[in-house]
Predict the 3D structure of the following.
Amino acid sequence: MIRPLSARCALLFVLLPSVALFSSVGLASTIPIPKPRPASPVLPAVAATSTQPGDLPVKEAAPIVPVPKPRPLPTKLEDVDLKVAKLAGLPGEEVECRNRLTAMGVHFSPAGRIDGADGCGIAYPIKITGLPGGVKLSGRTVLGCEASEALASWTTKVVVPQAKKQFGKVLTGIDQYANYVCRTRNSQNGTKLSEHAKGNAIDLGRFHLSDGTVVDVGSEPDTGTPEQLFLKVLRDEGCAYFTTVLGPGSDDFHSDHFHFDMAKRRRGYRYCK
Ligand SMILES: [Zn+2]
């Protein structure tokens, strides 16, 4: 490294023979050499572009400003993982289904596994305490998540808009007549297990509107009335959300309510009568 010399020292170099230049170390020992001046602003720039080993780039010589560590942002995946951990072994698809219910505005709480007799039961039941849009669901309603999602979607996309269209009112509540129950189809001996016994079915009997109007499925309204159109659309459109739709006229067991379920059939066949 070249050290800057004072004017006096430079004069000595001029006066001494050139041989003396090679003994400048000796001179330095007797003639005090001023301390190097502070580095000029130019020097760091030279160092910054230098590739000589040992040179420090300017950025490393700059004062160290503490950089706060970035906070971990919550992600959907982490939320899911958290819920899985909390609910101890709940399958991912069940967690995703429940997340969709929450996103739709369904109020519910997890219920304990139901192991009924003769194949009845629900592996991951939930208790619905409210439907989207503040729509009340009467009574204690326990279903599987798939049926709950179908019910919530149908309520939001069909019932609520139809209440507005046919009556100009807000849907405030739905009366359910049956949800989970361990029984055979229509409670008849010798028949298959009902979808109700798997948490896959719900029976709905009455719809409440904001002006106090109650539309009863079993009321047999006159053709062309708002009530008749309302119930017809609810039932027809229900087939897009549930795989089974029954009601008045289907048989003697469904004269006063709609039965909706999520029965699985070959080739995705739906039974809407
Ligand atoms: Zn039913």
